[in-house]
Amino acid sequence: MMNTPSLEQLQAWDAFKQMNHPVLSTVLLEEIMQALQINYQFISHQQIAVSYKKHLPFSHKGTHGHALIIAGNYGKMGAAILCAKACLRSGAGLVTAAVPENLSSIIQTALPEAMVVNSTQLLQIFDWNKYSALGVGPGWGIDTTHAQILLQIIKTCHHPMVIDADAITILSENKQWLNYLSTNTIVTPHVKEFDRLFGNSLNDFERWNKALEASLTYQCIIVVKGTFTLIASKGKAFINSTGNAGLAKGGSGDVLTGIITALIAQHYSPEQAAITGVYLHGLAANIALEQQTTESMLATDVIEALGKIKL
Known about the structure:
- With 311 residues, the chain is α/β, with parallel strands linked by helices.
- The protein has a single domain (40-49, 61-308), classed as Ribokinase (UDP-N-acetylmuramoyl-L-alanine:D-glutamate ligase, 3-Layer(aba) Sandwich).
- The protein is 44% helix and 13% strand.
- The protein has twelve helices and ten strands.
- It has a ten-stranded mixed β-sheet with strand order 1-10-9-8-7-6-5-2-3-4, with helices on both faces.
- The two termini are 34 Å apart.
């Protein structure tokens, strides 16, 4: 696994972060990764273009999978809408949102293309076979009911899934549940969520090291979100180079969860869905920046830019 960075390397890295210079930071990051002899790969446009699955002329909605987005609660239905809309924009054939029954009209008004089920049904005997991928957690809440639902999902559903946001917080409060995760699970924490889940880290490299170790221990995929988002899978590191500071805003993570869930539904492997999803998410943000500034960019701008990506 990764060695410990030298004090000089850490100081140089912090200096480049303060300068907010992504090109120089990328060069330094590569040098540090090589020096630490970590098994890493920078995600390239060519790599994504080669593996990207375009919809074929005679395909239909069933061909492109059925995603279940388990999200939303009172005051946070925007997260469910962003996640479900990003999922649809990323090519999922069908999307169903599992939300509280009294809030279902919000989804059906804002996103008529999505179907809706009552989220409390997930505590009962539920037919997971209708769905090919799950995204769980955005705007969800961390109460006892949602903890019960998450445990039910982890124990009874063996479809590939993305665990995000409040579902990560619940998981961090019940760390023994990590042992129940299937190899098809993708966990997408930002830095603070990661630290709650796996313990505090002194620097980025220690945190990434923990992610690589955890991907081996729990046999899952971990996406550590940040300026250089890291995808840890089977002890390997994939580092993303797309994106900008416009993503440092509420809703961006919900969009990423929707994108990755859509890719899984379309039969990408969980590892490839995480790598491709992170890259497309950042690329869409770069395209959105042509019309916006990093200050004015919204998560909805990123969703709308997905259709302008050329691969």
